[in-house]
Amino acid sequence: MKLKEILRISGRSIRAHRLRSSLTVLGVVIGIASVIVFSTFGASVRADVVGQIGTTNANNIYVFPGEDEHGAPTDFGASINPVFTTGDVEEISEIEGVKKVIPRGIIPVSSLSYANRTVAQQTVIATVPETFSQESVLEGRGFRSGSDEIVMNQPAAEAFGENVTVGSTVVMTDSSGEETELRVVGIVSSTQGEFVTGFGDAVPRFYLPSDPFYTTTVTVPGLGYDQKAYPQMTVVADTESVGETGDKIEEYLRQSSDASGLVPDNSGFTVQTSGDIIDEIQDVIDRITKFVTGIAVISLVVGAVGIANITLVSVTERTKEIGIMKSVGATNRDVVKLFLTEAVLLSTAGSVIGIPIGLGIAWGATVYAGVGFTPAVGWVVFSVFMGVTVGVVAGIYPAWRASKVNPIDALRYE
Prior knowledge:
Blueprint: H1 3-16, H2 18-56, E1 60-65, H3 76-79, E2 84-85, H4 86-93, E3 98-114, E4 117-120, E5 123-127, E6 137-140, E7 149-153, H5 154-157, E8 169-174, E9 179-188, E10 206-209, H6 210-213, E11 217-219, E12 226-230, E13 232-237, H7 242-255, E14 269-273, H8 274-317, H9 319-327, H10 332-369, H11 377-403, H12 407-412
Parallel strand pairs: 5-10, 7-9
Antiparallel strand pairs: 1-13, 1-14, 2-12, 3-4, 3-5, 3-8, 3-13, 6-9, 7-10, 8-9, 11-12
Helix pairs in contact: 1-10, 2-8, 2-10, 2-11, 8-10, 8-11, 10-11
């Protein structure tokens, strides 16, 4: 039997049961679309996060107290201990390959107020003027050391009833209840040296100059006098020598820094480059994407069961037709081709319809999440391959069963 004739008969059979065929195709569509949605959304998030790090923080080295056996940060409590003294900051600034060191501290506060609207805020970030690059400042400028000035990001400026603008005065109430008037001098989109904690920049952040607002001090081991100390440093290194500079910083911290005498016993330091963080983030997102997509693949299995079921029903309904075909010369191979083609047509139709639907839903999800749209081409090809394969696998048994029908018995079948 020619392929054209097989396609014509299979198509006629599918059209004869439009509702039943449509519901079978729907099962495959859901499976294909689910795989594409989850894989594309995962790829989009990964591309967005990696893009942010790669374009703005590629030469950053993040330094924290505390590490595990893999060199990663341990518990949160260890990572907020102020152990990096101003002496350490100055020494690290002198290491070859270091362009600047940006220490960061935490100032506990109760609230910030503007225009009769108070925003509850537990902490603000204390840092240095070098944290603000020209590209990151949307309005105004960065603050100056020794001034009563404050800088905030856009979500923070929009947190009050009326948007805060450059020149506004914000009242900060610290943890003891004392109020301080601060002049807003800049609105920023991001800051240099900021540790990447997730995609997007929707968290309100307020920045104050560490001089005069940050007052946390520690007694320098072996010297007996107090210095300011910070829980985190970000080192901006030469792009060509990020890894080598990170090794030098780690060597200094372990051997001769003030921080080495301030961290708890059996603890150490985490020195991570942006490349390390990119690898970790990609690994985590890939695992989550594979897990969720694997669940979506179950939908394809359900679709395969539907195709097998509908094809078996079709074999039973067309037993007499099979008998007639065989009595006029059709071979067992022709019968197998006929029912296998019917199953593959159903699965292919589901795949073709599922691709645009999956991509459309994935695009909507990325718009809602505020990340760029990056189609997971590999997963799209995989899902189509799986969809067609599902049709072949689901159609094999019914087609084989149809080929074994005895033509004499089939002609007597009612």
